[in-house]
Specification:
By secondary structure, chain A is an all-alpha fold. Chain A has one domain. The longest helix of chain B has 16 residues. The chains are: A mainly alpha (340), B alpha/beta (251).
């Protein structure tokens, strides 16, 4: 029984540039970054110097590293507000095992695996309690910091040693610094770029990555197709924890000090960077490169505003500009996405 | 092993109780080879529960399921899939924000590589997606396009195409035309017939009598958890079916 021929639907094609921007998740944020950079270069004194640029990059590196994990989680449809606390946990573990002698290897292993386990714990609590991850991690955030208070007795850890392992992870990148006086290129940026490449590859080139997108985009459909949603989520939480741990390693390697409040607020900066970079708060969409762009965009604006030194925007108010960027960039991303 | 005489599915005397509520009260349901079997009933009649038992979401309180003549235990959706039972749900079919290819191979991705380092064979996946869909008459502009760009009917088609590609023996369509336009409904009904031609059996669940009347060979009507009757298409008109569903007419 023939029910009539199928007809191919014609699709109206919008402006090709807008279509490209809707297709590629990072073209929009990239364009925004380019525009902001050019504006800063034009109007901000001392902006286009290696010194300023290196400052922008170094300021973005720590947030960028932690934001990789936060982005991964966001794509999976979850949040982990305790990652800032995990940075502090890692910082202490790393410090205790490197300051005054100790094994660098053990320091690194502990600083990454303990936060990974705590991240996985967040995931397990989520699965068992079925409470939204936002709330679960709002709680564990305080719990982990509280435990840190107790275990550290509130002591600050600090050192003046210049150990090779510190230089490896976040030492001065003098091969670049020699070109400009006062420049502050650091090795951490190399680690960051390496991690971005690895995790973007995981996201788009492995079946696990596909599952992360599915779990965030439509968990019911993912489950119906045999994806183990629970395992995917716990693993993603663990990865985010591990990245937070590594951020702690980078942080201590640079500043050589850690206190219980270290990392407070990083979780929100990371979320902001991910969203500015095009990730959807509701899950199912995002890109690690996009988050990197987001982190650079925020850092560029912050530096631009500070250097601009306008009379009516005292440097202390640069946070307002950052806030405006987050909202503005997100609106722009949304508009570009809808025009495809 | 030739099972061409035994029905694809025989659900025998299925009883399902949730606490004190009896959702199904001794229902028999048979689907034969190369047949489109309609499962019709009003909302709350129990057709959804019956199908969930078949797809492993629920286990029956009493009763036995036979698949191609052999008794089986279906304890989970994975068990059902392993038997070759694929279900196309209304909104649980596809992930909107992912491409057609990734949706097509979701949970069954083609991977290469060693040990823990497994990468996707994207080129082959794209190619197979396009070919497989084309084989059943679905032309996609580009398999890397995100599913959200497609219409409801096109999405249903892709979900059906996926089930066919992965060798379903039995395709269950759960209210497939409920949210579709006239043109899209036609397409989906076409694919249903296509599936039958390729040797599958299809269970078409709906309360839209008009749509199912165009494609189904046999009708199983359920009301209030009880089997009203099993009828061939030749035995009933659309009005008869409506009457049987609502109870105006008894068997």
């Amino acid at each position: 029984m023939e029910l009539g021929a199928s007809v191919r639907r014609a699709t109206p094609w919008s402006h090709p540039l807008r279509r490209a921007m809707a297709d590629s998740p990072i073209l929009g944020p990239l364009l925004t970054l380019a525009v902001v950079f050019v504006l800063c270069a034009a109007f901000v004194p001392n902006f286009l110097t290696l010194r300023s640029i290196s400052g922008i990059i170094s300021a973005a590196t720590l947030t960028g590293t932690i934001a990789i994990g936060v982005t991964l989680l966001m794509i999976a449809g979850e949040f982990d507000l305790s990652v800032g606390a995990l940075v502090a946990v890692a910082g202490y573990l790393y410090a205790f095992n490197t300051v005054d002698g100790g094994s660098a290897g053990i320091a690194l292993i502990l600083a990454i695996t303990i936060p990974a386990a705590l991240g996985a714990l967040n995931g397990l609590i989520l699965i068992v309690s079925r409470i939204p991850s936002f709330i679960v991690t709002l709680g564990t955030r305080s719990i982990y910091r509280g435990l840190l208070w107790v275990l550290s007795t509130g002591a600050l850890v600090q050192t003046l040693e210049d150990l090779p392992i510190y230089r490896l992870f976040n030492g001065r990148l003098d091969v670049l610094n020699q070109f400009a006086e006062g420049a502050n290129f650091r090795t951490a940026v190399l680690w960051l770029v390496g991690l971005v490449i690895v995790f973007q590859w995981i996201l788009v080139r492995t079946d696990f990555g596909s599952h992360v997108f599915a779990v965030g985009g439509n968990p019911g459909a993912a489950k119906a197709q045999g994806v183990n949603v629970k395992v995917v989520k716990v693993v993603t939480f663990a990865l985010a924890g591990a990245l937070a741990g590594f951020t702690g390693v980078l942080l201590f390697s640079q500043f050589k000090s850690v206190r219980v409040t270290t990392g407070a607020g990083m979780e929100l900066s990371a979320i902001a960077a991910a969203v500015v970079g095009g990730a959807l708060l509701s899950g199912g969409s995002g890109s690690i490169w996009g988050t990197l762009i987001g982190v650079l965009l925020i850092s560029t604006l912050r530096t631009g505003v500070v250097l601009l030194d306008l009379p009516f925007i005292p440097a202390d108010n640069f946070e307002a500009v950052v806030g405006a960027t987050i909202v503005g960039a997100t609106i722009l991303n949304k508009w570009l996405r809808s025009r495809g | 092993m030739d099972n061409s005489d035994s029905p694809v599915v025989y659900m025998e005397n299925i009883v399902k109780r949730f606490g004190t509520v009896t959702a199904l009260d001794g229902v028999d349901f048979t689907v034969h080879q190369r047949e489109v079997a309609a499962l019709v009933g009003d909302n709350g009649a129990g057709k959804s529960t019956l199908i969930k038992i078949l797809t492993g979401v629920h286990t029956p309180t009493r009763g036995q399921i036979y698949f191609e003549g052999k008794p089986v235990q279906i304890r989970s959706p994975q068990d059902a899939r392993a038997l070759g039972i694929e279900t196309v749900y209304q909104d649980l079919a596809l992930v909107d924000l992912m491409s057609i290819t990734r949706n097509f191979f979701l949970g069954r991705e083609l991977v290469g590589g060693l040990g823990p380092i497994r990468f996707l064979k994207l080129q082959r996946m794209n190619q197979q997606t396009r070919t497989s869909l084309s084989d059943i008459g679905i032309e996609v502009r580009s398999p890397t396009e995100k599913v959200e760009r497609l219409s409801g009917g096109e999405r249903q088609s892709i979900a059906i195409g996926r089930a066919l590609h992965f060798g379903a023996r039995l395709l269950i369509l759960d209210e497939p035309t409920s949210a579709l336009s006239v043109g899209e409904t036609r397409k989906v009904l076409n694919y249903t017939l296509n599936a039958k031609e390729r040797g599958l059996s299809v269970i078409f669940i709906t309360h839209n009598i008009h749509h199912v009347y165009m494609v189904a060979d046999r009708y199983t009507i359920i009301r209030h958890g009880k089997l009203v009757g099993n009828y061939l298409k030749s035995e009933l008109t659309e009005t008869d079916i409506a009457d049987l569903i609502t109870g105006v007419r008894e068997a």
